Amino acid sequence: MSVPLVTLLMWLVTYPARLLGLSLGRLKLPPFWLAFLRFVPVSVFAALIVPDVLGSPEWPRRLVGCAVGVGLMWRTRNLALGILGGFGAYWLARLAGL
Amino acid sequence: MVEPLRHVTPFWPAFWRGFRALMPLWLGIIPFAVAYAVTARAAGLGVGETQLMSLTVFAGASQFAAAGLFAGGASAWGIVATTFLLNARHVLYGLSLARQVPLTRPERVLAAQFLTDEAYGVTVVHGAREPGGLSFGFLLGAELSLYAVWNAATFAGALAGAVLPDPAALGVGVVFPLAFLGLLVPLLVDRKAVIVALASGLGAWGLSRVLPGGLVVLLAGVGGALLGAVLVTRRGEA
């Protein structure tokens, strides 16, 4: 199968997932499912982050970088500063041989 | 259905607020898109094919996976199934967004094409600060901010692929979790949120040893949100 055709199929399985949720949003939901949706971002972001840090072959450095990044974000509420500071800490750990 | 009276937010100011709100994430997106393009070119995709995927599929993790699978000679259906698994989580983002952003049908059709983890995260995190509440303009601004930079960086990476250093050597892998931590930290407002984040994160780590990445995010994401809903409704606090 050619690359453009595979790309088209990838698009065809991605777009409907994006549209489906947006289209069902006016459903009246019971409190349990409203609470469920409120917790979706916290849950999904954590599920994206933790395996990417602890499951990495270079996890000690990434852990240092993320700890410093979180500390900066917590204190300053500044995303760019947190990313830059975390990336810097990661490199310090890497240069230190961690 | 009775349409509730609502404050009408002007489109363009909201659009640019959304566009700017996502800009701090560019730092994480650019190396990610360049790395995708370099991987795709190394797998034998042309510049046009590499760009086409960014223009249509527009989903970083699954594009990355597809490039890797093309390189490994995986079957077309394997690539499509992996993409489906990786992107099924967008249903949850849409459900959550649709409750917070009033959207007409054409707006939904358009907003759906550009919906991503990052645009969703920025929109829900900044929503509380939007004058008059979240609007289509803010959402589309955040979405297209990512679309523009993702495609520009894809193009640059596809052209320059051969001369760039190895992304792993630059250590840019750590930027992805850092960017998502920036979205997660403001949401950790009480003990229940912290419990859900820990359970989902550690659960995903455990699952990631035995399952593909897209499925892990879906299962752990649903599991963590279910736990949160149980914690809240059991005490009658919903």
Automatic annotation (TrEMBL), chain A:
InterPro entries: Brnchd-chn_aa_trnsp_AzlD. The chain crosses the membrane at residues 31-55, 76-93. It holds the Pfam family AzlD. Keywords: Membrane, Transmembrane, Transmembrane helix. This is Branched-chain amino acid transport. It comes from Deinococcus phoenicis. The lineage of its organism: Bacteria, Thermotogati, Deinococcota, Deinococci, Deinococcales.
Automatic annotation (TrEMBL), chain B:
Pfam families: AzlC. GO terms for cellular component: plasma membrane. It is found in: Cell membrane. Keywords: Cell membrane, Membrane, Transmembrane, Transmembrane helix, Transport. Its main location: membrane. One of its GO terms (biological process) is L-valine transmembrane transport. It is a multi-pass membrane protein. The keyword Cell membrane applies. The chain crosses the membrane at residues 21-44, 64-86, 144-164, 170-189, 210-232. Belongs to the AzlC family. PANTHER family: INNER MEMBRANE PROTEIN YGAZ. This is AzlC-like protein.
